[in-house]
Write a structure and sequence with these properties.
This protein is of the alpha+beta class and 78 residues long. The N and C termini lie far apart (26 Å).
Length: 78
């Protein structure tokens, strides 16, 4: 089982860029979240909804924090 199978990422169709995450956010699934978040550059608003996350470890927290730092600094997406 790879990380993508343990994590569900949806992007509701509305005005704001929203990434909704459900499932386990850990070392296996964090790269999938990082890839989804990298699709949105720092010039646009981004809403991250974690209410469906059932487990998050330090790797998942790092993925969220690193993205927030990158966006705050205005770095282009990778």
């Amino acid at each position: 089982m790879d990380g993508a199978e343990r994590l569900t990422i949806t992007r509701p169709d509305d005005d704001a860029a929203t990434v909704e995450v459900a499932g386990e956010l850990d070392a296996y699934s964090a790269p999938a979240l990082e890839a989804a978040l990298a699709e949105h550059d720092a010039s646009s608003d981004l809403r991250l909804v974690l209410s469906g996350v059932t487990f998050i470890d330090s790797t998942g927290i790092r993925a969220v924090g690193t993205t927030a730092d990158r966006r705050r600094e205005g770095e282009p997406r990778r």
